[in-house]
Design goal:
By secondary structure, the chain is of the alpha/beta class. It is built from four helices and four strands. Helix 1 links the parallel strand 1 and strand 2. The two termini are 15 Å apart.
Length: 142
């Protein structure tokens, strides 16, 4: 089982959307042995942003709200995928990479309109797609 945790600042927007997008994409690609979660480096247990939920629903993903989780302690067996390179400094684990290293920067939609959340979610889709393709490709050589 591969465990992947998406990490952003508050855990209410980008990492939350990445988790939901990854779950559906993995299921579609028949990648069943990957577990996804999300956390924020400054999370306070807040519910997911309303526009994040609406953007996910509009794009065909699970938009059900959940409470954000603070990234307290890392697990050595988990792969941490941060939204920005800056978030990497909060993750005390050797297995960490960022969306910026995959398919590029994801704008922070926090507090903005629905269209901004949708734009952010679409960039997250690109990053998650690339990540899942890398996982599938690596399996072919292992």
């Amino acid at each position: 089982m591969i465990e992947i945790c998406f990490v952003c600042t508050g855990g209410t927007c980008r990492s939350f959307m990445a988790e939901r997008i990854a779950k559906k994409m993995a299921k579609t690609k028949k990648i069943m042995d990957v577990k996804f979660s999300s956390a924020g480096v400054m999370s306070k247990g807040e519910p997911s942003a309303t526009n994040a939920c609406l953007a996910l629903k509009k794009l065909g993903y699970d938009g059900k709200q959940k409470k954000s989780r603070l990234l307290k302690k890392t697990k050595p067996e988990c792969l941490y995928v941060t939204v920005t390179n800056d978030h990497k400094r909060f993750v005390n684990c050797p297995k960490v990479l960022s969306f910026e290293e995959l398919a590029g920067k994801v704008i922070d939609p926090y507090g903005q309109d629905l269209e901004t959340y949708i734009k952010s979610a679409k960039k997250i889709e690109e990053n998650v797609e690339l990540l899942l393709n890398k996982i599938q490709n690596l399996r072919g050589v292992l």
